[in-house]
Amino acid sequence: MGHGESSPGGMRPVIVRYPEGPVEAVAEADALDAALDMNAVLVRGPLFGVAAQDAGEAPRWRVVVGVQAGCPQQARDSLNSLLWFRAKDEAKSAAERRALLTAVAQLESERVDELTVLGTRYRVVRAEEYAGLGPDGIEQPRPTDPEPAVPNWDRGKREARIDDGLVLDPEAPVTPAQAAERLALRDLDYAGDRFPEDVRQDSRQALTTHPDVLLLPTVFRVVEQDGPGWKTGSGAHAYAHDARKSLDFALTWFEPRRRGLIPWDADDRAVDARAVSAEGTDPAATELAEYAQAADRLRSERTNRIEAGGTAYQICRARRLLRWGPDGPERPRPSDTNSHPPAPLHPHLDEDGNVHYDHDNDQA
User: How far apart are CA 298 and CA 349, in angstroms?
Assistant: First the structure.
């Protein structure tokens, strides 16, 4: 079987390469240690994004909307915005703008999972998020996961974008640990009575229609435990430090307000657990000091697990796999649910590039 060809079952061969350089070799050893410790995989559920393929680029696709949305419609809305702003800011002619706005109009009224605009295919893609479970619980960041040399805790600093510049290439060679993980997860599907039958049926069918697996870059989340199980406490972040910074904000600003220790109308960012507990005059100062001390540990120790207010918080190392078939990455499944219907998201933009904020009145 030659390079790039599929097996009779539709699977592509996995091309394995040696780790490149000492840094990747250490990360490979770290991955092997993690795999040996793992005794189960916890599947959180699907995530959605948008990939694009230009003419002549097959089988490669590039991610243009990070695969992190909780439902397909959120990814469609992001594609809507991407094309609208491209029409507004980048179109070189009325004809080019018209083509982009035609796609925007379709996304405003239909649940569209693929369309072609100006020679580029755009597809809403579906990935599965999972985490490893070992003797110490849910996997935390690994020693070889990238960390900033000097952590920046400025809440105004923009985080790195998830999947920024990512190219999806099913023929790209991978390291032995990556290859082993891909092969081990090819048969991953939903099972058990807690999943509705249509969800299980779509999952089983995907094993045939999209038999290959690509691994997306790791993301990091905050998870919380105040009872027998864990629940998600933050969105996905590209780096573990960004997740810690999110948890720092939650501990010092959000949780004190949610628990009534600081009034919601005290909306100044400076009014937080650190400031109020340092004053020592507030009746809740002692409770707030616990949150402030936990947040300070995040900063000083770069810890991945902490407790405050009866809740355990942990930075979770989450993985994502994307199923791949003969025509590329998997789209949303019929059983995937949407949180809201399609709708216009932006003011009316005409083919000359003029934005009409009072378009409805103009039509009256």
Answer: 46
DSSP code of residue 252: I
Q: Is residue 157 exposed (0-12), middle (13-18) or buried (19+ Cβ within 10 Å)?
A: exposed
Q: What is the pLDDT of residues 122-149, one digit of tens each?
A: 999 999 999 999 888 899 999 999 988 8
Answer for the pair 328, 59: CB distance below 8 angstroms, yes or no. yes
pLDDT band at 231 (very low <50, low <70, confident <90, very high): confident
Q: What is the CB neighbour count within 10 angstroms for residue 105? A: 12
Residue 2 above 50 pLDDT?
no
The DSSP output letter for 174 is B
Q: Rounded CA gap, 278 and 286, in Å?
A: 10
CA 111 to chain centroid: 21
- pLDDT attached to residue 279: 84
Exposure of 132 in the CB half-sphere (CA atoms within 13 A): 23
Count the neighbouring beta carbons within 10 Å of the beta carbon of residue 62. Answer: 17
In the chain, what percentage of residues exceed pLDDT 70? 96
Distance between CA atoms of residues 274 and 285, nearest Å: 9
For 118, the 3-state DSSP assignment is coil
List strand residue ranges (DSSP E) for 25-105, in order: 40-54, 61-69
Q: Report how far residue 237's alpha carbon sits from residue 219's, in angstroms, rounded to the nearest whole number.
A: 5
pTM for the predicted model, two decimal places? 0.91
207: phi then psi, degrees, rounded to nearest 5: -65, -25
Element (H, E) at 223: strand 212-225
Strand partners of residue 97? none
Evaluated on CA atoms 185, 215, 35, 318, the torsion sign reads negative
What's the burial of 348, exposed, middle or buried (CB within 10 Å: 0-12/13-18/19+)? Answer: middle
Question: What does the pLDDT look like over 274-291, one tens digit per residue?
Answer: 998 988 777 888 999 999
